Amino acid sequence: MDFPIASSPSSTVVFAGVIALITMTMGGLFAWFAFTASNLSASIEGSALRIDVPIYGRSIPLSSLEVASARIVNLQQVPELRPRTRTNGIGLPGYAVGWFKLRNGEKALAALTAREKVLFIRTTEGYSVLMSLSEPDKFLEQLSREPGYGA
């Protein structure tokens, strides 16, 4: 003779559904990050530096940039500028986007896909910017020619 097991409460079904929804949402989010990871960019638009990255993109007024002290660094050779702690961002192997604390204690907005040729710019707004650019020297040259940048 078989004895049926009592049905689970409806809260179990709801809980399982919520977990499934969260899992699918996270999967979609990671797929979106993977898709957009190859479409990061930075440009100078009008009187602003425009950083186009998922979620953390922004326009920074050129007058807020300390271009005169900007430099191109290899983060392997300049450890004090390496991101240490992610405060609000995405950190995956070979991909760091968002807000980080650097090893030297500075707050930084990072858009990093490589560590060898990184443009480092301080701002007058209490944070620095780290960007992996394919041609950081040309970008810095163009940035320093723009009228209205901070020195």
Molecular structure report:
This protein is α+β, with helices and mostly antiparallel strands and 151 residues long. 25% of the residues lie in helices and 34% in strands. It has two helices and nine strands, in the order αβββββββββα. The protein has helices at 10-36, 136-145; strands spanning 41-45, 48-52, 58-61, 71-73, 83-92, 95-102, 107-112, 118-122, 128-132. A six-stranded mixed β-sheet has the order 4-8-9-7-6-5, with helices on one face. Strands 1-2-3 form a three-stranded antiparallel β-sheet, with no helix packed on it. A hairpin with a 5-residue loop joins β2 and β3 (58-61). The longest helix has 27 residues, at 10-36. The mean pLDDT is 88.
Which key phrases capture this entry?
3-stranded antiparallel sheet
Strand content: 25-35%
The overall pLDDT, averaged over residues, is: 88
Number of helices: 2
Q: Strand order of the main beta sheet, please?
A: 4-8-9-7-6-5
Helix content: 10-25%
Counting structural domains, the number is 2
Compressed to H and E, one letter per element, the order equals HEEEEEEEEEH
Q: Which stretches are low in confidence, meaning pLDDT under 50 for 5 or more residues running? A: none
**Largest sheet properties:** 6 strands, mixed
Structural class: alpha+beta
Distance from first to last alpha carbon: 87 Å
SS elements, strand count: 9
Rg computed from alpha carbons, rounded to a whole number of angstroms: 22 Å
Overall morphology? elongated
In short:
With 151 residues, the chain is an alpha+beta fold.
Helices and strands in order, then pairings?
Blueprint: H1 10-36, E1 41-45, E2 48-52, E3 58-61, E4 71-73, E5 83-92, E6 95-102, E7 107-112, E8 118-122, E9 128-132, H2 136-145
